[in-house]
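Researcher: Here's the sequence for the chain we discussed earlier.
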Amino acid sequence: MSYPHGGLTGPAVGLRRSSSRVVVTGLAALLAVPAVLVGGGQPASAGFHTYVDATSATVVNSGQPTTALPFTGSALVGSQEDGNGGEPSRVYFTFDLTPYHGKQVISAGAITGETSVNDCDKPRALELWRTDTPATPPTWRDAPTVREKVADLAPDAPCGASAFETVITPALQQAVAAGWDSVTYLVRVAGDLEQDAQYGRHIKPLGLSLHVNGAPNAPGALSVLGKPCTTDLFVPEATPYLTTVLTDPDHASTHTEQLTATFAWWPADRPAERTESTTGKKASGSVFRYDVPAGLLTDGGAYVFVVRATDPNGAVSAWSPECRFTVDTTSPAPPTVSSTDYPDDDGSYGGPGIPGEFTFGANGSTDTVRYRYSLQGGSPVEVAADAPGGSATVSIAPQSEGPASLSVHAVDRAGRMSTVTTYYFRVRTTSPIILDANPTAGFGEARTLTFQPRMENVVEYTYRLNDGPEQTVAADADGTASVTVVPAKPGGNDVYVRSRTVDNLLSGEANHRFHLATKPTVSSVEYPINVPLTGAPAGTPGTFVFQPGMPGVTEYVYSIAFGPTQTVAAGPDGSASMSYTPATSKIYRITVYSRTADGTVSETFTGTFYASKPS
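Model: Thanks. This is the structure I predict for it:
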């Protein structure tokens, strides 16, 4: 019996996406070996390559005309003598095209392979036809309508090839461009040959090899001079640079999509004066930049720019949202500065740590939006104006007494700063007066210190000796207080004190410094200390006597002529002596310091003595 179309009949069914997916060995088996490419290839270009399994695969056989047979690993196409006779089989494969909507198919191939061939002396006569996509698995009798022949499947590939590919680019391009959700392909042996068992063969599941390109994403992250686009963007230059970030959905870890950016800009009120400029290629994900040439933008002018991306295949993104900006190349006027707490006159006010209010004014500049200020030597701080062209009031506490200055700049919407306004004022001295009742007291001796206020209503003082803990003492009715300290640090000592008022105002910090001399003295009859060119002849033994400069000395550590240090114990009166015989005639250096039983070390004595030449 002859079948002109071999049973390729049935109702027309609308193409739609199939929700089912057949489990087959598919492309995993085919890709285990290189495929033979038949029908020519496409030049390499950007985009992404993907291999697609069928969502469903159904075998139909004329001997079982009402049964849809599953595809399991491989399937017979055509006829086979053993038990099949002249009852041919065909296979339908359906593929989901929805992931490729809106994309460009650069190339497409149909891939399959043979697991067995009845007779390699007969040429391969496999055909690929497009049919309507069936709503239910097809049967021989209930087959979908055939639309057109797509290709002969690899007629020149070696017999029994485990993998071969046939180019079907135009057919896939047509299907994707039409927006179909799916496409179904029929594999069969050509015409009456499918009843001839010599042409029968078992094939692997059909898969698609797609090289697809999608349009780049609409550009994002637009900025002017590095400032993100906002509804009220002002820039301080007439030659700003414009930037954006371009991305492409085809970008993947296996390749980098190269894109170009087209910047378009125009005066906001004159869109007909549009200017476009295209950049060079850069990788997807990169920042693209365009520098506006000089002489095109004007102070006070409002402008708009947009960007779109183009990939190597010419696919173009949508234009980005508009970015609007205004050019402002005029700096604001220097601000006014005033304060009733710290007036700019010849008087002294407040005190260290006592806050005062300072008010900054725009001085007629209507676009001043904030102020930048700093005390002399301090870090700058910014504060917003209460409105464009408005003022700002800040609280500042000077940290030192005496002359002070405050530097203030006005800043406009574009970020331009004015020239500086310097405000001068004087901070009242509030640190307490420290009186030392025992200015000649030595090491370890008590000192009585009296604190006198420079502020009204002082109720207490907080003080410390050197780096010791802070202590607090209440003030007497007249605001004074007395304390006793016993310094035990050789050399320089410091007492620090602040007063506090009944209103919890702190004064500046006062400092009283005094020196405790602890350096020992050194003498020698034979070799007078620090007497030039006077001394016994070299080789004469000399006695050197050490006297303490502080109480409690138990030993001395000394060195002569930069030699090693040596230790000598002190007697009950704190003194000690040692002998030294200079070997040659010259000037000798001697260093000595003392130490107490608790480890307190004195200041170091340094001197010289002279050994003369023997006569």
